[in-house]
Amino acid sequence: MEDWTSNPMNAVTVVIALFTIVLIIWIGVLGRRLKKLRKQYTAVMGNTGVTNIEDVIVDLKQELADQQQANTQMKAQIIEMQSTLTKQKGKVGVIRYNAFAEQGSNLSFSIAIINDEKDGAVFSGIHNRENSYIYAKPLEKGQSDYPLTPEELKAILEAK
Length: 160
Known about the structure:
Distance between the termini: 116 Å
Structural class: alpha+beta
Mean pLDDT: 85
Strand order of the largest sheet: 1-2-3-4
Low-confidence stretches: none
């Protein structure tokens, strides 16, 4: 009986067989890695319908730039609204009082309508038996060019 190593063709056949087995194992490992990469690629690409990742990246970059521009516009609008809001005359103070001693009820009033900077107006309604008179005085920083009554000053303080 001959030894398999004595014939050089037998040795080459065994080496080729071993090499083939190693290649088959290597192809299996590469196949699993490729399958994993495909899953990751599908997860990244999603249902975009685009097969080129460069196009996806360019689209994402454009969307990000659009979002940043929209964000900048919103910030500008918020700043504008905040500056406008402080100028709005939204603070109101109302004081009712008895302007004349002969009247028995508090039918006279002072109403102050001001903003955060105390700009606005104060309205006073003086009621007596025969008539009612209404006066308006403009306000700047809580002061007026016209003399303010104690009731009007109290209405301004209440509006703060």
